[in-house]
Write a structure and sequence with these properties.
Order of helices and strands of chain A: EEEHEEEHHHEHEHEEHHEEEEEEEEEE
Radius of gyration of chain A: 24 Å
Radius of gyration of chain B: 24 Å
Largest interface: A-B, 28 and 20 residues
CATH architecture of chain B: Orthogonal Bundle
Distance between the termini of chain B: 32 Å
Shape of chain A: elongated
Strand order of the largest sheet of chain A: 6-7-8-3-9-10
Helix content of chain B: over 70%
Strand content of chain B: under 5%
Strand order of the largest sheet of chain B: 1-2
Number of strands of chain B: 2
CATH superfamily of the largest domain in chain A: P-loop containing nucleotide triphosphate hydrolases
Structural class of chain A: alpha+beta
CATH topology of the largest domain in chain A: Rossmann fold
Oligomer: heterodimer
CATH architecture of the largest domain in chain A: 3-Layer(aba) Sandwich
Number of domains of chain A: 2
CATH topology of chain B: MetI-like fold
CATH class of chain B: Mainly Alpha
């Protein structure tokens, strides 16, 4: 640990698993917080653990950091057992939700902490601290105590304090949740470019699906302690595996349908499908439904007439709720002025994605 | 919101209390220290005789130094006992916390005299400690220097004042955010390094408050030396007590009391200043 921390992270062939979570379960008393989680994180990847509060995402992060022990299962890093090590022997660093800066130390001493306790050569500490502070644009605050800094500034220092140790894996526990919306957007951009520049693997925890979509290479969606789906943002959005995923990531219309000989029937709607026969659940994104006049190009489009039930204008798009013989559907179309009465709508049957309940 | 009259009326009782029972006695004490006793009567004649006596007779300085030495010993010992206990309770006791807390607090409800006499019973020549040592054949005769010595005073006062040191220490340790400990581990610091680099610096306000309690309380203690002390461990408050009692020299006693009061105030200011330097939130 001592000498290793002063050298850059071990080079890894791209896309090789850096961290492997194998069948991890965690219970607090009778409460099962994590159930049989298996997950691989590739070197250099930005992976987001996404989930509602209580889904177990922070617990999984704490198991990887070493602040808690799994009830069963193993964690491996670079082909060596990891979960048996105490947190101070793990080459991961954490950016805490509430920053957790040492109040009795200056910004520079906070950043130098990891280098000092692991006995990095004294001669290189000031240079590395300054470089880390420069990276997060905080070098002029070196000698200030954390209590004098704003939330965003504290977050930058917390980031520098973690990155100065050149960890193989950086864990970020809802690092932006305490910041206001504008600062949050700005920090998201900075985080993403930092991650690209440094090539450090990021494991990011958030409950904000937009944030997850904007930052991640892959998203691992957690629900009630199990992994619902692990996929890239595009994949998870366009091919949600479950109804929960489809609803949590973006908006959707869930259509309960009976499939019979390649035709799905959901109330008054029917469309061709390759799904097997039986009762099935489909997800149809609001933007997949368009006004028929503007969707003449869709091949084999399913057309139907529906009444405008509600219209909400939100800048570039119109959010519609349409009534198709008692079936309410959400529709998102480019802004085009107020709509009333009945219109013909259309969707591509390939956009109706079969999901698990 | 409230009328002027109402505000004036509700502040009368506390002001009266402070005036009658605090400021007036202090003023009287201060005045007495500049008066003198002639033919067994206190004469209201302003002079500096008492303070001159204090500075000329080395006995007083000697007793004051002994008192400070005892107070320092009690402070150090009660910190040595109180810190590990407070640390253990705050960071490792988990479920036993409440029980342990009660065990620390309960002695505070027991009368000072009872605790003093308990030590008399333990340390005396046919006391518990001597009986035990003879039973083990470590000593043949009762050891007499346990009781009526500075050692006995320090032991008794340490026992009595350790809870006062423990409480502020425990409070300050409880206030350390636990994610700071995690952050320290996360950055590669082991338990020892974390203790000295994070826990100790952040508990310094509690440490100072506890040390101040122990030192100042011991400085003004007269029952401890009376019960278990003997002539070799007379403390400054015993002298004040005898001057106000049998010796009937209130002016000289008042002069010593003023000196102790000034010393105590100076110490409290120093402690407060240091605490401010170490308070980061």
């Amino acid at each position: 640990m001592t000498a290793a921390s002063s050298t850059p992270p071990l080079p890894h062939p791209p896309n090789q698993a850096l961290l492997e979570v194998r069948n991890i379960a965690k219970s607090f008393g009778a409460r099962e917080v994590l159930k049989n989680i298996s997950l691989e994180i590739a070197s250099g990847e930005f992976l987001t653990l996404l989930g509602e509060s209580g889904s177990g995402k922070t617990t999984l992060l704490r198991l990887i950091a070493g602040f808690a022990q799994p009830t069963s299962g193993e964690i491996w890093m670079s082909s060596s057992r990891f979960d048996t090590l105490p947190p101070y022997q793990r080459r991961v660093n954490t950016v805490f939700q509430h920053y957790a800066l040492f109040p009795h130390l200056t910004v520079a001493d906070n950043v130098a902490y990891g280098l000092r306790v692991t006995h990095a050569p004294a001669s290189e500490i000031p240079t590395r601290v300054q470089a880390a502070l420069q990276m997060v644009k905080m070098q002029e605050y070196s000698s200030v105590r954390p209590s004098r800094l704003s939330g965003g500034q504290q977050q930058r220092v917390a980031l520098a304090r973690a990155l100065v140790n050149r960890p193989q894996l950086l864990l970020l526990d809802e690092p932006l949740s305490a910041l206001d919306a504008n600062l949050r957007k700005q920090m998201q951009g900075e985080l993403k470019s930092l991650q690209r520049e440094l090539g450090i693997t990021f494991l990011f925890v958030t409950h904000d699906q937009e944030e997850a979509m904007a930052l991640s290479d892959r998203i691992a969606l957690l629900k009630d302690g199990h992994l619902e789906q692990v996929a890239s943002p595009r994949e998870i959005y366009s091919h949600p595996a479950t109804s929960y995923t489809a609803q949590f990531i973006g908006q959707t219309n869930l259509l309960r349908a009976d499939v019979n000989n390649g035709v799905a029937i959901s109330g008054p709607l029917r469309w061709p499908t390759i799904a097997p026969d039986g009762p099935m659940l489909f997800s149809l994104r609001p933007e997949s439904i368009q006004l028929a006049s503007s969707s003449t190009s869709i091949l084999n489009a399913v057309r139907f007439r529906a009444r405008i039930h509600q219209q909400i204008f939100s800048g570039s798009v119109e959010q519609l709720e349409i009534d198709h013989s008692g079936q309410l559907l959400r529709v998102r179309i480019p802004a085009r002025g107020p709509l009333t009465g009945e219109h013909e709508f259309a969707f591509n049957p390939a956009d109706a994605i079969l999901v698990r309940d | 919101m409230y009328s002027r009259l109402y505000k004036a009326l509700i502040s009368v009782p506390p002001l009266l209390w402070v005036g009658l029972f605090l400021l007036l006695p202090y003023a009287l004490m201060f005045a007495h220290s500049f008066w003198l006793v002639r033919d067994g009567v206190i004469v209201h004649q302003w002079n500096f005789q008492n303070y001159a006596k204090l500075s000329q007779n080395p006995v007083y300085a000697e007793v004051l130094f002994r008192t400070a030495r005892i107070a320092a010993s009690v402070t150090v010992l009660s910190l040595l006992l109180g810190y590990p206990l407070a640390y253990y309770m705050s960071f490792h006791a988990s479920l036993r916390k409440d029980l342990l807390y009660q065990l620390v607090i309960v002695p505070l409800w027991v009368s000072y005299l009872v605790r003093g006499y308990a030590w008399k019973t333990i340390l005396g020549s046919d006391g518990v400690l001597n009986g035990f040592l003879q039973y083990l054949h470590i000593t043949k005769e009762p050891v007499s220097f346990f009781l009526y010595s500075p050692f006995a005073v320090i032991l008794t006062l340490t026992h009595i004042y350790t809870p006062f040191v423990f409480l502020p220490l425990y409070a300050s340790l409880e206030h350390i955010p636990r994610n700071l400990i995690e952050a320290s581990h996360d950055l590669g610091a082991g338990p020892r390094s974390t203790f000295f680099r994070v826990v100790v610096p952040l508990s310094i306000p509690g440490l100072l408050a506890g040390a101040t309690f122990a030192f100042v309380l011991t400085l003004g203690d007269f029952l401890g030396p009376m019960l278990v002390g003997g002539p070799s461990s007379i403390m400054i408050a015993n002298i004040v007590q005898s001057l106000f009692g049998t010796a009937y020299d209130w002016p000289l006693g008042a002069a010593i009391a003023v000196c102790i009061l000034l010393l105590t105030i100076a110490l409290l200011f120093l402690a407060e200043h240091l605490e401010k330097c170490w308070a980061f939130r």
